[in-house]
Amino acid sequence: MAPILFYGIPSGCSFGSIVALEWLGKPYRLCRIDMMSDMIGSDAYRRINPVAETPAFMTENGAVISESMAILNHIAARGIDKGLGFAQGSPEFDRLNQMLAFLNTSLFGGFAPLWYALEHGLEGAEKQALRAYGSAILTKVHAQLEAMIGDRDWLLGDRRSLADAYFIGIARWTIYHDVIDRRDYPALQRLLEKLESDPAVQFAHAVERGEAPVGSGGFKGEISLEEALGVLKSAALIRKGELYPHSTKDLD
C-alpha cells in the first residue's frame, strides 16, 4: 500500500509535506481535508487524527503519524540518499532538527495570533491587537532567519533539505495575512523565489487549487477520506491477523 498524506485546505502547513514527498520521489497518495467541513463539521477525520489537525500521514503498514515535524522526520529517514535527511546522531541531523524546531515554534507560532483573528472573525481593537502582536513576532523571526541564512543557498547550506520544504509552506502566509514586506529580507526573498520556482512547490500549489497536476512520478493520485478510512480499517485487521493482505484493494 502506498502511504497516504492527509493535507489541509486552504493554505495548510501540510504544504511542506507534499513538497517533501515530491522531492522524495517514492509512491504516495494524497487525501484532501477541508479544514472546516471535515474537521469541524464531522468526526470522520478524528478516526485518522484524534486532535483533528493536518497533516497526518498513514504509512505503508497503516500506522498513522501526526504533526509536521514527525512526518518530515519520517520522510527524511527515507531520503537520506537524496540529502533530504541525515543519519541520526550526525551533526547534520542535529542541525536539521534544530532548524525544523525553530520554524515550527518561532515562525509558525508567530502566525498563531493572525490565524486566531481570522478564524474567529474578530474586528476592531481585538483584531488590531492580535495583528500587531503577530507582526511584532514575525518581524523578529524574519530578522533572525535572515541572519541564519546569510549568503547560503538553502537554510542548511548548499543543498536543499526538508527544512526548506517546511519553510515554504509557512513563509507564504506573509502574503495570505498581508504582513511583512519580504523585500526587507533579501536572503529570505532569494530563497523564497528559488523555492517558488521549484517543480515540487508548483505541484503543491496546484494540488491545493484542486487541479490534477503531474508530479515527479511518486504521486499515485488522490484518495477520498472514506476510502482512506477503509484502508485504515483493513490495515488494523491485517495486524490483528483477521484479514490477509491480498484480500484488500490494491492501492499501490
From TrEMBL:
Pfam family, one: GST_N_2
Sequence ranges assigned to domain GST N-terminal in this UniProt record: 1-83
Residues annotated as domain GST C-terminal: 89-214
Protein name listed in UniProt: Glutathione S-transferase
Taxonomy of the source species: Bacteria, Pseudomonadati, Pseudomonadota, Alphaproteobacteria, Hyphomicrobiales
